[in-house]
Structures are given as C-alpha cells and as structure tokens.
Amino acid sequence: MAKRRESPSKRQLELRLSGQAFEIPPLWDVLLIGHQAPIGPEAAKRMAESLAPGQFELVRVQRAPVEALLVRKSLLKALAAEPLVELLLEELAPLLGEDQVVRAQVEIVLHTGRTIRLE
Q1: Mind giving me the DSSP string for 44-88?
Q2: pLDDT at site 30
Q3: 36, 54, 90, 104: which has the highest count of C-beta atoms within 10 A?
Q4: Which of 103, 109, 96 minimizes the C-alpha distance to 70?
Q5: Organism's domain of life (predicted)?
C-alpha cells in the first residue's frame, strides 16, 4: 500500500534571532563626537572614566563634522593614534552629522606566517 503524501503548507513563518554581548561601557572601541553633539568630548571622557577607568583616550581633531574621538587605549597599543584617527575620519566622518555621536567597532587582525626550511 502506497503512503499518502500530504501537501506542505504554503504558509511559513521565519524567525531570525541574533544576540550580542552587553558590554560595559557601551562605547565599543571608538566614539566619534560631532561638533554640535548633545554630549561634548569632555563629558564623554568623564562618562567613559566612570564606567571603565583608564580604558579610553580622548583625541581632539579639527575636521568637520567630528570634534573628537574617544578611543579604546588597547587599540592604540596596536596602531598609533594618527593613522587610526585618519582612517576613521576618512571612512566614517562623511557619513556623520555634526550633531551626532557614533560608536564604532574596530577589529585589528594580525596575520603572520613563517617558512621553515626542511633539510
């Protein structure tokens, strides 16, 4: 006796879920602070110091629309401030308004390799 096949339902519900670890402070790696932002560079620095003492460095810039960047110090151990800030301003500043504060993630990936001569 042949099995009877049921036709599949045409109604579907798809759920996509994602999660992300909550981090203290909720600043990620860099905070770009616009010239007219509701929180200024010094206030942002005080906020970071109260949540994560000694982890962030304030870098002032004179390049619209950004007034300053609050950078995680661990990034500055891998890359000097000047090229990092230049890269962030070049890539992100054109997308920002002067009244914005934007947090950014920076991932530094180190690749290394070595060739060993076999005798």
Answers
A1: HHHHHHHHSTT-EEEEEEEETTEEEEEEEHHHHHHS-HHHHHHHH
A2: 95
A3: 104
A4: 103
A5: Bacteria
Structure tokens belonging to residue 95: 């997308």
CA–CA separation, 87 and 11 (whole Å): 48
Q: Is residue 1 very low, low, confident or very high in pLDDT (cuts 50, 70, 90)? A: low
- Helix (DSSP H) and strand (DSSP E) numbers for the chain: 3, 4
Report if residue 20 sits inside a domain. Answer: no
- Per the structure block, which two tokens stand in for 118? 């076999």
Measured CA angle at 42 (ends 55, 30), to 5 deg: 45
Q: What is the DSSP letter of 29?
A: S
Segment 31-48, tens digit of pLDDT: 999 999 999 999 999 999
Please state the domain count of the chain: 1
Q: pTM for this one?
A: 0.72
Give yes or no for residue 23 having a pLDDT over 70: no
